[in-house]
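Slide 14.
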Amino acid sequence: MIQAQPAQLHVLPETAWIMPIQRTAPAQWQRLLAALDEQRAVVTLGAPMPAQEDQRAGRPRVSLTNSMVTIDADGHAINRYDKQQLVPFGEFIPFGFAWFVNLMDIPLGEFGRGAPTQAPLTLAGQRIAFNICYEDLFGELIGAQVRDGGATILVNASNIAWFGNTHALPQHLGISRMRAREFARPMLRATNTGMTAWIDHRGQVRGVLPPTSNACSKHRCKARRA
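Slide 15: predicted structure.
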C-alpha cells in the first residue's frame, strides 16, 4: 500500500510491527526503505520499542513501550511517541496483581509509560502529535500536545481488532471527532480494522475507509486520496 500511494508521510496502525524495529526482517525492511527513498517520504509505524532508563527504573518487568516511531529512508528513527495512558493488564499491571500475570505467563504484561511532554514530528511546516488507541478519550493529554507542543495536526493510531465489527468502531471515530472539534485541529486516524479516517478541524469526517477493511481496493484508495 505504501508503494502504491506516494505521500510525504505514511502512518501505519498501532502495533503494525509486532517486534522492535531493530529486529525486523531484512527483506521486508529494505523494501519499505526503498519505497520511502523513492517517494522522499517518512513512515510512522506502531511497534514495541525498548524502554528508556527512567521508564524501567524500579520495574523489573518493564522492557518495552507501546510506541509510534517515525522512520526516514535511511532507516533512522527521527521521532518517537510512547503511549502514556496504558490499559490495565494489557499494558500495565495494577498494584497487587503481579501474581496473576506471572501465573498466566502473559507476554508483554507491562509497558513503560511515556513522558507527559513529548516532541511532535515536524514535517512540511506542520507539527504532528500522535496518540495511541483510546488516548483520544483524554482531553487533557491532547490539550497538552496542542498547548505545550504546538501541535497543528493530530494523529490517532489504533489496533482495536479486539472489538470485532461492533459499535466500538464508529464510537471511537466519534471520540476522535470530538477531540478535533474541541481543539480545532485536524485528526488523522490509522487503524487495522476501523475506522481509518480524515477528520477536519471542525470535527467533520472528510474521508473514511469502511470498517474491518484491511485491504486497499482500487475504489477505496481513490476515496482516501480525495
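Speaker note: The CA atoms of residues 167 and 193 lie 12 Å apart.
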